Amino acid sequence: MKPRPNRLILSGYGPLAGVIAVLLLVTVTVPSKAPGDANELAMAGPDPYAATSPELGAVGVDAAGAPVVAGAPGTTGAAPGTSAAAPGAKPGKGGKVVTTAQAAGAPRAQGVAAASNCAGGALQVAGSAYSPACVNFSGNNGGATYRGVSADTITIAIRESSASDQREQEDDEDSELEKKAEEAGISASPADRKRELDTLVDYFNKNYQLYGRKVKLVRYTGRGDGQAEIAGGGQEGANADAVKVAQEIKAFADISALTQPYMDALVRQKVLAIGGLHMPQSYYRQRAPFAWGQLVDCTTLMNSAVDLIAKRLPANENATRAGSASLRQKPRKYGLIFPDDAVYSQCINEARPKLKAAGISFAKEIRYALQFAKLQQEAPNMAAQLKAAGVTTLVLVTDPLLPFFLTGSATQQDFYPEWFVSGTIGTDADVAGQFYDSDQWQFALGQSYLTGFGGGKNTEAYKAFATMKNGKPTSLVDLTYQTLMMLFIGLQQAGPNLTPATFAQGMFSYGKRTGDYGQWSFGPNDFTSTDDAREFYYDPKALSPFNNRPGRCVPLNGGRRYVGASWPARVTMPTPPAVAP
Q: Hey, CA dihedral for 447, 450, 451, 453, is it positive or negative?
């Protein structure tokens, strides 16, 4: 078959899963080969934040409740640039690597000073709500303070698909989902993806204070199996890729750690790993200071979701937003669907006490394997089980592909429940809803941590890209921008003596910022960026600002975003007419 010039932005997940996963995983591609090794290697060891982290030192909070790390900028510990000795670290000219203990109580790093003469005045970057404070630097940056760091460069790795994988995906022209993705405007050529990422790296290099260094992005073709890794396997290939990143590329960080096996493998190699998807807070603590997430941790997500369910779809009331008239006359019976995965199971189990306190129990729970090729075959049985159990209200904690098949199967079986969207991995995006069965999804409501969609030329990312005068960005430039911004905030905040430990210390001292992408902050229990969510209901007729097509997650409360379990007690939203008896 003749390959198309344009393909999905996230080609590495294959033509089925990539269509919707692209909504949030825009930064990189992940290798996707035939399923192979399914071996899992568990990350063992105590929680380093239980008392003292060997990388970060003691962690606590100050009188105002702000995180305090021994050695963090702005505390009585070490200033930017002091760090624990680390693998590959060498003293630079006139500089030396110091331990956290040696650094304790040290003065602010030599040559680093707060200033107000940056492009943004007291902020480093003009026009950015998330900019760190303005910093001036002069003198020696310490040279090679950690593996992947030299006097003039910081090496960042990114894992991509092999050429053969990409050709296989290009040749699959019969994929219904892939065609819909192109119609929805979420496809882009490999050249455009590369140009966008490289342009934004140049932007951040130009505007952020890196103490005499520049980020050098190194792409490499991975051996890992992305689909197997998503399902919790593929550890052997992930390990091989992480070894390559650490020992051959010698990278300081990797911004393509989108699967747990690959992130675990990078952490073992003591490479800073950015990209985790809805891991629990404890997962990040146990891997500090190396693991960082692009998406909100699932501990926070589920805490917020339970509060919203209890207030919008409360127990002991009838299912008044169900799609069938008969279900609307019945008291709510809840169903739950989530992946058969240790991480997701932990998040659900952490939420059970709060669910119980709200009077919510599940008449039917379905755990499913994250094997995308099987979802179409398994969805009809899932719908049948939920209907047989008398479920009126279905809570989704799923990947974005399952609802595509499940909503269609539910309609085929005349099963029209209330749908609650917890907001995992793109299930809360307009374009995802446009793929789902609209007869079902019009009865969906939930929460969304997604940010930056539909802002067009008005978003911070678009404006930043425009300053580089290198053509137009792709439709998902905001996601690429947020990934890089998270990285560069940590690089500036770390100071000249850059290590994973000082990266974390700098992130913890960043404070709170609010702009196009919601509220951002970091701390000993917060290794992800966006803190707040908005509430929505889905309207299949409303035009999406993302692609100007029918189908939108309509924000409630004037679009206001809320942190944690703080949703308003009541809101007003329309209830569509029932579509079935």
A: negative
Which ranges of 235-280 would DSSP assign to H, the alpha helix? 235-243, 260-268
For residue 86, the tally of other CB atoms under 10 A from its CB is 17
pLDDT at 315: 97
Amino acid at 132: P
E strand or H helix at 180: helix 176-184
Q: State mean pLDDT over 501-525.
A: 96
Which segments within 3-152 are labelled E, that is strand? 7-8, 52-53, 57-61, 67-69, 112-114, 135-137
Runs of H (alpha helix) within 22-106: 100-103
- Tell me the H-state helices in 185-247: 190-207, 226-230, 235-243
Report in angstroms the alpha-carbon separations of 363 from 39, 354, 389, 390.
33, 17, 6, 8
More confident residue, 269 or 547: 269
| Cα distance between residue 266 and residue 260, in whole Å | 10
**Alpha helices (H) along 324-476:** 342-357, 372-388, 402-412, 430-435, 438-441, 460-466
Q: Above 50 in pLDDT, residue 92?
A: no
Q: Which of 286-290, 381-385, 475-479 has the lowest mean pLDDT?
A: 475-479
CB environment 150-186: b (16+ within 10 A), e (fewer)? bbeebbbbbbbbbeebbebbbeeeebebbebbeebbb
Burial class (CB in 10 A: 0-12, 13-18, 19+), 142: buried
The answer to whether residues 331 and 300 touch, using CB atoms and an 8 Å cutoff, is no
- Report d(CA 520, CA 529) in Å as an integer: 5
More confident residue, 371 or 331: 331
Lowest-confidence region among 3-12, 334-343, 347-356? 3-12
Q: Taking residues 445-457, what's their average pLDDT? A: 84
* pLDDT value of residue 186: 66
Q: For residues 156 and 190, what is the distance between their CA atoms, to the nearest angstrom?
A: 20
Q: What is the DSSP letter of 384?
A: H
Where residue 370 falls among pLDDT bands split at 50, 70, 90?
confident
Tokens 């209200």 locate to 393
Query: Hey, is 397 helix, strand or coil?
Result: coil
Contacts for 352-361 with beta carbons within 8 Å, 24 or more apart?
354/302, 354/303, 354/306, 354/307, 354/565, 355/306, 358/306, 358/309, 358/310, 358/314, 358/315, 359/310, 359/314, 359/315, 359/316, 360/306, 360/309, 360/310, 360/315, 360/334, 361/334
Quick one: pLDDT at residue 551? 95
- Distance, in Å, from the CA atom of 200 to the CA atom of 123, rounded to the nearest integer, reads 19
Please choose, from the candidates 390, 403, 274, the residue with its C-alpha nearest in 3D space to the C-alpha of residue 329.
Answer: 390
Those residues whose C-beta lies under 8 Å from the C-beta of residue 96, and which sit 6 or more positions away, are 142
Asked which of 74-83, 206-215, 230-239, 283-292 is least confident by mean pLDDT, the reply is 74-83
Instruction: Give the pLDDT score at 289.
Output: 98
Instruction: Pick the closest to residue 230 from 421, 347, 431, 369 (CA basis).
Output: 369
Q: Give the DSSP H or E segment for 508.
A: helix 500-508
d(CA 139, CA 110) in angstroms, rounded, equals: 8
Over residues 118-141, the mean pLDDT reads 96
Helical packing angle, 342-357 and 298-312, nearest 10°: 40
